[in-house]
Amino acid sequence: MQGNSPGGPADRRLPGDRSVEVGTEPVGEADNVSKTFGETRALIDVSLSVLSGQCHGLVGRNGAGKSTLVTLLTGLARPDRGVIRLGGQPAPNLADRSAWLARVACVYQKSMVVPPLTVAENVFLNRPTNGERSAIVSWSRMRKQAHEVMLEWGFDLDVDQEAGRLTVEQRQIVEIARALSIGARFLILDEPTASLEKAAVERLFERVKRLRDGGVGILYISHHLEEIYEICDQVSVLRDGELVLHGRVKDISQENLVAAMVGSAPPRRATEIEAVQKRGPFGERRLHVSNLSVHSRSGSVDDVSLEVRAGECLGLVGLEGSGSSTVADAVVGLVKPAAGTIAVNGKSVPPGKVNAVLHLGVGYVPQDRHARGFAPQLGVGENLTLTVLDRIARNVLGVVSFQERDRIAQEQAKKLQIVARSLDQPVSSLSGGNQQKVVVGRALAPDPSVLVVVNPTVGVDVASKEALLDAVGQARDAGMAVLCVSDDFEDLRICTRLVVMVRGRIAAEFDRPPWDRQRLIAAVEGLEHAGVDQR
Ligand SMILES: Nc1ncnc2c1ncn2[C@@H]1O[C@H](COP(=O)(O)OP(=O)(O)OP(=O)(O)O)[C@@H](O)[C@H]1O
Ligand SMILES: [Mg+2]
Description:
By secondary structure, the protein is an alpha/beta fold. It has helices at residues 66-73, 97-101, 119-123, 139-152, 168-182, 198-213, 225-231, 254-262, 324-331, 354-359, 369-373, 380-385, 389-392, 402-415, 432-444, 462-477, 517-524; strands at 26-37, 40-51, 55-59, 81-86, 89-90, 105-107, 186-190, 217-221, 234-239, 242-248, 285-294, 301-309, 313-317, 339-344, 347-348, 362-365, 450-454, 481-485, 497-502, 505-510, 531-532. It has 17 helices and 21 strands. The chain starts with 25 loop residues before the first strand and ends with a strand. The structure holds adenosine-5'-triphosphate and magnesium ion.
């Protein structure tokens, strides 16, 4: 296996060069590892081996233990039992961060990029550029080295840019570049596509393939099973902390993969864009957006008008930058329109006053749950009921009735299949998908008259997704007016009408389910002639 050792920069092959046969040394291994948090057995005797030049998929339902395994493989936590090996060697001491960084790199579910620093500074974060012991940072050398890493792996990114201005995709590149520049040949991607738009996902896949072909071993975590089939060679399935299936991707059908994830009771799978059959007459107009224009770096809006009636779910579909999520931001008062009006139940929305908007009866599931979605240090129950405190704090003393609070929280937790030890478990220690369910539950709990959701099922596993969409669908049928901004076509099955946005404008409207996937994609990509669905 000459020339294949997963070593430092010296023996790095040209990315994409498959002429040298890629070796199969393990770059990262878990050997019978177990990890427990209080009463939660997050991992039970799990063994898994990621080989160089391979992409290894890791799947499982929300809370199955995937991210926990990542924390063990990256040295953020120690297994209770079992061994971690990196590049065939026993794992370094937990305290020796630089030793870990030199062997394994991870793009976490949550971004670790430091916004006020530049790209180059982020790539060389916490590392000397003047040799091991010098405390002095050589800015010019750092920029040069960062630039070289970008060039070598074909990443197109200006190293002097401030990281705070980067898109999610660019932040991932920074994190991957940071890892590769240290020489790590084991890369972990924990749900990297969850907040990427379609074209960015394609580009990420190209990068992953190039890294793999260059001898890097990749552990790839995703809830999008089609991605596993597209880029992975091997796949492992975790269920309730146990490894229940492992094999070559080409030997395992999607049906068997889902069966392994779900266990004995396979759920009815949400068939894509199998839309609700419900058609008007809908109730009164709850949300009215007229001639809205917004200037925004993340997607401007140009003269958009729309309305949502009680019992209706309007899907707003568009690529990142199309302005679809900016409309949602404007409706909840997060951004100030340059022109136009927004009214909820006939009352105009005050820009910049999100709290006032929520008091008008608007529920909101934001795009970025980490920034605006929940209070991580509070418990599941408290988070679920933060929005209904007014209603349950009705006794004379103004004291919150814990019984009532728990009842409401319990109900939401059950409806959305939230996996938590108890209602007191801090949301920060829930798995990523379960955190998302808490955010949705919290928006639904006060029974708002208008519900604005942005990518509501991001990071949620296939079975829970259905429960979550059903919950929103029931709210719609009970008379809620729902505005659903999403780039996940499965979300669109709860919609009664779709509006497609391209470059800030409404490009097409579909007013009768089921949605024709091909035509919808064409419209979203801006290929179809703008106009109203003619069927
Ligand atoms: N720090 C912690 N304290 C307590 N419990 C934890 C902690 N971290 C994880 N857990 C629990 O361990 C279990 C596994 O969580 P993990 O984050 O590994 O799931 P996951 O497979 O990554 O799920 P998802 O797809 O939702 O991200 C969950 O029940 C979670 O609540
Ligand atoms: Mg996770």
